[in-house]
Amino acid sequence: MSLPHAILTALLEQPSSGLELTRRFDRSIGFFWSATHQQIYRELGRLETTGLIRALPQSGPVRGQKKEYEVLPAGRAELARWTGAEDDPRPIRDPLLLRLRAAAVVGTAGLDAELRRHLDLHRAQLAHYEAIGRRDFPAGEGDGADPLQYAVLRAGVGLESFWVRWLAETVESLPPAPALPPAPGPAAGVRSVEGSENPS
Amino acid sequence: MSLPHAILTALLEQPSSGLELTRRFDRSIGFFWSATHQQIYRELGRLETTGLIRALPQSGPVRGQKKEYEVLPAGRAELARWTGAEDDPRPIRDPLLLRLRAAAVVGTAGLDAELRRHLDLHRAQLAHYEAIGRRDFPAGEGDGADPLQYAVLRAGVGLESFWVRWLAETVESLPPAPALPPAPGPAAGVRSVEGSENPS
DNA sequence: AGGTACATGTAACATGTTACATGATTCC
DNA sequence: GGAATCATGTAACATGTTACATGTACCT
Hints:
The structure is a homodimer.
Chain A: H1 3-13, E1 16-17, H2 18-24, H3 37-49, E2 53-55, E3 68-71, H4 73-84, H5 95-106, H6 111-136, H7 147-173
Antiparallel strand pairs in A: 1-3, 2-3
Chain A binds a DNA duplex through residues 1, 3, 17-19, 35-39, 41-42, 45, 61-67.
């Protein structure tokens, strides 16, 4: 239930049309909550129906014409409520960790290259965030900048730094290329990993 | 498309029934890929239909009786393929970061308590992972333990450590309690944040 | 006979993804 | 008038969530 609130936030920062929102979800807000234009148009329709936003009056034809939205008082109230409400952190949900675990059973073929590829991608993303930091917070946190905006950027930098560090360590720790483990016939030899449920 | 592969991995580690899988998705595998029992039963049905797993023969009634599954060769092959395939890392998707950004617009009421609550939760989760590490990897990475399993645990520890650090810093950096910003009428006063699209 | 834990499922809905459809505007 | 870009949308499907339904086994 975060997409409507992401849109409310974006519209409060700057009233926009669907396509403008889509572009901003490819940059700023999209760095921690991405959405496609289909999702955005669908959600704009719902938010308008429920009276949290409204489309600014238009003249002339509608189809194919830009449609700007602004947040109504009810929308601002809902966003404020949501911001302070209790909502537990989502558990980790990462396909790469799942693949490492699968590799422990079916072999590490292709995994090394994939880890190096991810390492490069995370390094690039980290460099991107650091560039944003230099641009928007040249003096660090101490200056007049919004501590909330700065905290969000720090989270991006911190998470990407973690992945870069972890991937570098993991690539190191991986054996050169045994590629395939016992690789048994139909459901034999499975017992080798039994009992090592981990983490648990 | 990760749930079927999570189930294949779990079944290769240990042939199980739906409920047994559900329990393991509350512990070991669930720490980085959670799933409810409804998802698991639905997916078991699909995997059986597509010939990646099969139910072990049963005698007597079926409804309400345990049904064990094992992975077929096609399932093992599919899991090995997926493990080494290219799949980009998912972008960050975190409601808490979204709420920080929303708070920059609608005010920080309730946010401080929520951050402290998350801090406690992440500290508990970190302690949990560290306990698992002491239990399953007493000698660190150097011993005979599977480096893949150890890498997965290190990821859990590293991510939780990051959140603990970041939340502690962020709670510190937050102003005591201005609670509400200008709080204008319908869509006025919004200009104060304009142009500070961040990160972007 | 009733309660609890075990065990498998259905149904309805919310959210996210992928592919495609349509009209308006601008430039050549 | 054709291509590219801007702009809004539909449709179909995959995945995840929530609530509920049903039967078995065991204990008291």
